[in-house]
Amino acid sequence: MARPAPSDAPLADGAALAKGGRTSFLGFLLRLLARLPFIFIASRLYGAAPLGQFAYATMVVEFVAALALIGLKRGLAADMARGERPETHIIADGIALTMLLSALGVAVLVLFPVLMFPAGEIGLNDRLLALIVPAIVLSDLTLAALAYRLRIDAQVRARSVVEPWVLTLVAAALAFTAWKEDGLLIAYAASMVAAMLASVVPCWRLFGAVEGWTPSPRRLWRMARRNGPLAGADLVEWGTRRLDIFILGRFASAEMVGIYFAAQQLASLPQKIRSSFDAVLAPLLSQALARGDRVATAANLRQVGFWVLAFQVAAVLGLAFPGDGWMGLFGPAFPAGTMVMVTLLLVEVVASQASLAEAAMVYALPRLNFLLSAAAMLVQAALSLWLTPIYGGEGAALSLLVAVLLLACAKAVVLSRHLGASVLAWRWSLLLCMAPAALLGWLARGWPEWLMLAAGVPLILLAFGATLWRFGFLPADRLLFRRHPDPR
C-alpha cells in the first residue's frame, strides 16, 4: 500500500488516533473506578502513616524499574520502526538488556533496603519487595511492543483492569488478617505480577516464539547507547513527578506523606488521561518523523493535545470545587491536603502539554529534550529544598508547578520552531466552555458536601461537556466519539 503523502498524513492518522484514544480513555475510566476504591481502602482501613510508607517504598521500586527499562518504553517503537531486524529479535534484545539491569537494581535494593524504608525497622518482607522490579519492567516492555502494533486493548486490560483491581481487592482482603502490617505492599506486588502476566501473554500470542535469535553483548550495548538520551529524558520526567514525594518523605512524617499521596492520586487523574494516549501516539509520531513528515507530527500533537486538555479541564472542574469533600472521603485528617490537591491539579494540566511536546522531541531532538527536562528538575529540586521544610506539602506542590510551567513553555517553543508549525493545543474557546461550569461550581460550594459530590459534580461536568460540544469541538475533534471515524 502506498504511503500517504505528507499533506494527507494528519487525516490518515486522525482515525488511528481516535480509535486508540477511545480505547485508551475507556481504560482510564476503568482504572479510575478501581484506583479510587484502593485509596479509600488504604486510607480508611490502614491509615495515613502506612499509606505514606507504601507511597515512598513503591516510588523507589518504580524508580529502579524506570532505570532498568533504559528508555525502551518509548524507544522500542523507534527500534522496531527502523525495520533493520525481525521484530521478535528486537523484543528479545530488549528483554535481555532490561532483565540484566533489573537484576542489578534488585541486588542494590536487597542490600540497601533503607533506600525503600528510610524510617523504622526493616524485615525480610521489606527486602523482598525489591524482587518485583523485573515484573514491572517486563510488563512495560511487552506493552510497548504491543503498542507498536496499535494493540492498545492489551494495555487497557493490564493497566486499567488487572493491575488496579488486584491491588484493590488484595489490599481489602489483607486488611482483616494477620498480614495487615504488610498488606499494602503485598497487594502491590500481587498487582504487578498479575499485570505482567496480562502483558506477556498477549505479546507472545501476537509476535510468537523467537526463532534464530542469539544474545550479543555488542548488540545490547548498541541498543543501550542508542536509547541513552531517551532513557535520560524518561528518568528526568519520572523524577520530576516524584521528587516532591522524595523530598517530603525526608522532611515530613509518614502521615503527611500519606495525606500528600492521597491528594496526588486524585490530582493525577488528569495525568492519567494524558498518558492514556501515549500508547497510540508514540508509534504514529515515530513513523511520521521517520518519513520526515513534520506537518503530520505537529498536527497529531495538536489534535491529541486538545483532546487531553478538554478532558483534563473537565476533571479539574469536577475535583477542585468540591475538593474538601473529595479529600474528606479518605478520613478526617485528609482535608488538610485540599490546597495540595488543587495545586497538583494545575500541575497536571500544565505538565501534560510538556509531556506531549516531549513525545515528539524524544525522537526529533533527544539531547535538547533531556537538557530542558534536567534543567526543570534542578529548578524543582532547588525550590523544593527551600519551600518544603517551611510549608510542607504545599511547598512541594508549588515547586513542582513552577518547574513544569517553565518546562512546558520551553518545550512548546523549541518543538514548534523545529517542526515549522505550532504544537500548542490551547484554544481560547475553552475559556467560554469553562465559564458556566466554573460559575455553577462556585455557587455550589455552599451546599452540603454530600450534595456537592452527588449532584454538584455531575452538573458541573454536564455544563462543561454540553458547552464544549457546542462551541469548543471542531469536526476533527468529534472523531474521538465516532465508532467508525471517517478521516475525511
Q: Topology, please?
A:
Layout: H1 9-46, H2 48-69, H3 72-81, H4 87-111, H5 124-128, H6 133-148, H7 152-174, H8 183-207, H9 217-226, H10 228-251, H11 254-267, H12 269-275, H13 278-290, H14 294-320, H15 323-328, H16 338-364, H17 366-391, H18 393-419, H19 429-443, H20 449-472
Write a structural description.
- The protein is an all-alpha fold and 488 residues long.
- The chain has helices spanning 9-46, 48-69, 72-81, 87-111, 124-128, 133-148, 152-174, 183-207, 217-226, 228-251, 254-267, 269-275, 278-290, 294-320, 323-328, 338-364, 366-391, 393-419, 429-443, 449-472.
- Helix 1 (9-46) packs antiparallel against helix 11, helix 4 packs antiparallel against helix 6 (133-148) and helix 10 runs antiparallel to helix 18.
- The longest helix is centred in the N-terminal third of the chain and has 38 residues, at 9-46.
- It starts with 8 loop residues before the first helix and ends in a 16-residue tail after the last helix.
- The model is unreliable at 1-12 (pLDDT under 50).
